[in-house]
Structures are given as structure tokens and as C-alpha cells.
């Protein structure tokens, strides 16, 4: 075998070895990439589970809506961070874009509520249906505004009727006014403004003065005793 043949055989062998190593490296890198993707997916699922398990119970609906929105944005940021750490740039950018869309939609809802007479009720009516395209969005806002105004009017009417019913109920069970004293004085439990012209004290007038009433009673008793002696 001449030198050229030996050299060609060596080069062929080297190329075969390099190809085999390249294939093996590609397989290892592919396995590592899939492992990282699986790990990232598991972390995202764990975060979502932790969120659902540890979500606090908020009493007021307005605060609950605000908390849910900030939680959604937070999840997208955490998802983007996890995907970036796993080397999945495209998925990280996608999560960031979804978070940006959430913020943009929230700002749109705030502006809608600010312009509407019905306030946030219009937003709730608007969000009941799926998002429409731009050509139908204005009509959808108008319909939501109409429904919100109707709901607001019905709620106000309901509260008005409830208030009237409560006042009527309270009035029907109101205890009668009690009168104190004898036939010559009718002292009610109501406190009178100003001072009494007879004794100078506050809370009653001369006509219902308890001290003056006492003087009158003693005068009547004295007159009775005097008439008996006569």
C-alpha cells in the first residue's frame, strides 16, 4: 500500500470518527434541551399549583379583580424568567408579550370605565363576551354601555324600594310616644331646645316645667286643706 492510500484511509477514518462524535453530541444536546424544557414546564406547573393552593380569599370584589390581574401579570413574568433560564428565548419573549397584552387590556378597561356613566359595570358587560376584532369593538363597547346603564338603573331602583320598605317597616313598629305627669302637665320624652323661663334649666319649657308643676300641686293641696278648715 502506497503512502497516498494510507493517508486517504487515515483521513476517512478521522472523518468517520468526527461524524460519529457529532451525532453523539447532537443527541446529548437534544436530550439536555428536552430535559431543560421538561424542568421548565414542571416549574411553571408548580408555580400555578402554588398560586391556586395559596391564593388568599379577598372579601371585596373590586380588590379581588385587581389582585387577579396583578397575579396574571406576575405569572407571565415568572414564566418568561423560567423560560429564559432554560435557554428558550422564543418562549420567554412570548410570555413577555402576553404579559404586555394583559396590561394593555387593563388600561383599556380603565379608560372605558372612566368615560362611562355606569363606571366599571360597563367593563364587566364588555368582558362577558369574547374579544371582538377592531371593526366590531366600538359596537361592542356601545352595547356594553347600554347594558351597564340598564343594570345600574335597576340596582338603584332596587335599593330605593328596599329603603322604602325598611322605612315603612320601622315606622309600623315604632313604639308609641309616652306621656308623663298628671292632667295639668303633659311632659313628653322629647328634649326641648333652649331654657325654661320658670327654672332656667335646659331640656324643657315653662309649660312642662317639673318644678313649676310641683309648686302647682302643692298650691292645690294647700287650697284644699284651707277650704276644709273653713
TrEMBL record:
The protein's name: Uncharacterized protein LOC118423839
Q: Kindly list any coiled-coil regions of this protein.
A: none
What organism is this sequence from? Branchiostoma floridae (Florida lancelet)
Which residue stretches does the UniProt record annotate as biased composition, category Basic and acidic residues?
148-159
Q: Which domain of life is it from?
A: Eukaryota
Q: What InterPro entries does this protein's entry cite?
A: Znf_CCHC (IPR001878), Znf_CCHC_sf (IPR036875)
Residue ranges of every copy of the CCHC-type domain listed in the record: 196-211
Swiss-Prot/TrEMBL keywords = Metal-binding, Zinc, Zinc-finger
Supply one GO molecular-function term.
Answer: nucleic acid binding
Region feature Disordered, mapped onto this chain: 148-177
